[in-house]
Amino acid sequence: xxxxxxxxxxxxxxxxxxxxxxxxxxxxxxxxxxxxxxxxxxxxxxxxxxxxxxxxxxxxxxxxxxxxxxxxxxxxxxxxxxxxxxxxxxxxxxxxxxxxxxxxxxxxxxxxxxxxxxxxxxxxxxxxxxxxxxxxxxxxxxxxxxxxxxxxxxxxxxxxxxxxxxxxxxxxxxxxxxxxxxxxxxxxxxxxxxxxxxxxxxxxxxxxxxxxxxxxxxxxxxxxxxxxxxxxxxxxxxxxxxxxxxxxxxxxxxxxxxxxxxxxxxxxxxxxxxxxxxxxxxxxxxxxxxxxxxxxxxxxxxxxxxxxxxxxxxxxxxxxxxxxxxxxxxxxxxxxxxxxxxxxxxxxxxxxxxxxxxxxxxxxxxxxxxxxxxxxxxxxxxxxxxxxxxxxxxxxxxxxxxxxxxxxxxxxxxxxxxxxxxxxxxxxxxxxxxxxxxxxxxxxxxxxx
Length: 449
Prior knowledge:
By secondary structure, this protein is mainly α. The chain has one domain (53-447). 61% of the residues lie in helices and 4% in strands. It has helices at residues 39-43, 47-57, 59-63, 69-97, 103-108, 111-119, 131-144, 164-191, 203-220, 222-226, 238-249, 258-285, 292-308, 311-315, 338-367, 373-389, 399-407, 414-425, 434-447, and strands at residues 10-12, 29-31, 127-128, 151-154, 159-162, 396-397. The strands form three sheets. Strands 1-2 form a two-stranded antiparallel ribbon. A two-stranded antiparallel sheet has the order 3-6. A hairpin with a 4-residue loop joins strand 4 and strand 5 (159-162). The two termini are 47 Å apart. Residues 75-425 form the SLC26A/SulP transporter domain.
């Protein structure tokens, strides 16, 4: 093999028959060339080089002019509508897991989405809240903003209570700081080509990781499904501890509404499964998929039931309630928090990227295209950094929304724009019971293949 270009490592091998292997020597030649560094070579600016850089960093420029409208527009539009419908309750649910007001979960469904539309390379990956990250943010908030720091005296009950307003404000600052810093870490790791580490992630490892993550998502919702409160656990052996706490706290005096929450969860689950089968039947008869399970069960029925039966006051079932309108102006978190969250931010950066790239690779292998691991890392980092500036919680690849996106015919990143526009048109201040959103997570994991 001849080495005509500089800075090459060449190996020359003689291919042998098995019977002649012992009679012939293998010729292995290593040809080294000087690895001299020339600043002018690497800093030279040319039109082809600029074009290559722009196409690599802004994938939108490459695929948008060649977008096949006739072949994929309908599927992307349907997937975008589905994504817009799903974003609201699921984003609220992830904010509740992170122990911050629900509106900050909605911000995660707004700003990061637009950023990823410009910089992302996966056709099917939907970014948004992720349960593992939400649990990590909750643990960080419990450590830096514990209940003991916000106890005040209540004259009506003659007892100490938690000042939830002040505590929520502190927790939001902590979440925003760790989100922004994790995004900056991801951008830095992308620029130093850390995404090459994804080469060592085999397909079985990726599928096993995503499957394990779905179990964590399901188990983390047990408290909401049964309407019980208990001390949350993080780290090893979290799943058996959650199961034990849920069982022992179901029939306590503080959790008298647990069976009402469970009944609501079961009704929603059955309705979603039936609607899913109806949707599959209609998809064979109609040219485009119809989101029956999303429109009929979650948005219409659950909202009407919550409103007409007044579930919050009558049965003490938690509802989202009113959500403030408007968007937050960009702002930086207090610098005093940077040192306290820097370790958690790096861990969240790695965990969030691992989930996103694993999920993206699953879809890429299934549909026969490639994702740029380094560009995905940069896109995810920019989404988190911009989201952090606008008070968003940390985001990663969203398993339920990505599965729904794929199952409803989405084929390109244009789904992001459709979902983004649909989010703008929706009015999120609806009293949806929390159990409805969590039942959707369970049904999606159960019915998708």
